[in-house]
Specification:
Length: 230
């Protein structure tokens, strides 16, 4: 079934617990005769609302393509990796770092069905550290897709200490649609089977639900024995 969570608000609902108190405090400050304090609180609420912005995105068409799950910068592309949740080997991983200036709503790289969700408590190292994917608190989502199962890992960072996952096991993953959020800067990893090739490199700026980060290999897309046909 498709998740009924929604989360289409222009400001993600996780941000309302910060925005609303700041707005109320700004109104109280204005009423009490402190206009400069009121202005400061109003600007602070606008800044927080901007951080939690939740824009609409239109994913590009293209069969066999994988979209970025996050806005930010590609930190690294690693091949020959393993995963406890995916039995295939070798696998490959791409890591994307989100600064506090990026949109923090996460989107599905490809369509499929959520097989498994695992939340693992851990440390809060800087998400740019290579070891953060192993020791930091993280949330792993495994999706069974048409072109092979893939894994998305939401990783908490030094400042980001709240991971929101808006889906549950058995939900349908729709390419480019929202599935979660991480507060205040962090990192997302995507682990793909060998049949894909990454089309972005370290340092590339990407946008969730819009930037193609990997494509299915043409050779792997051929049916068995097709190379022997005239």
């Amino acid at each position: 079934m498709i998740s009924k969570a929604g989360h289409y608000e222009p400001v993600a609902r996780e941000g309302l617990v910060f925005v609303i108190p700041l707005l109320l405090a700004a109104l109280v400050g204005w009423w009490a005769g402190y206009p400069w304090i009121s202005l400061f609180l109003l600007l602070a609420s606008a800044a927080v609302g901007l951080f939690f912005r939740n824009p609409e995105r239109v994913p590009p068409e293209g069969a066999g393509t994988i979209l970025s799950p996050a806005d930010g910068r590609v930190m690294e592309v690693v091949r020959q990796v393993r995963s406890e949740n995916l039995q295939e080997f070798p696998l490959q991983r791409i890591s994307i770092f989100m600064s506090i200036f990026n949109v923090h709503v996460n989107r599905w790289p490809a369509s499929g069905r959520v097989r498994k969700i695992t939340h693992v408590p851990g440390r809060f190292l800087d998400a740019r550290e290579p070891s953060s994917s192993l020791v930091n608190e993280h949330n792993t989502v495994v999706v069974d897709a048409e072109d092979g199962a893939y894994e998305v890992i939401q990783i908490a960072g030094k400042v980001a200490r709240r991971i929101a996952c808006w889906v549950k096991e058995g939900d349908e993953a729709v390419r480019g649609q929202r599935f979660g959020l991480i507060r205040f800067g962090s990192r997302l990893d995507v682990i793909l089977p060998e049949g894909f090739s990454f089309v972005v490199a370290a340092g590339t700026r990407v946008r969730a639900g819009e930037t193609v980060i990997a494509e299915k290999n043409i050779q792997s897309a051929r049916s068995p024995g097709s190379e022997n046909k005239a």
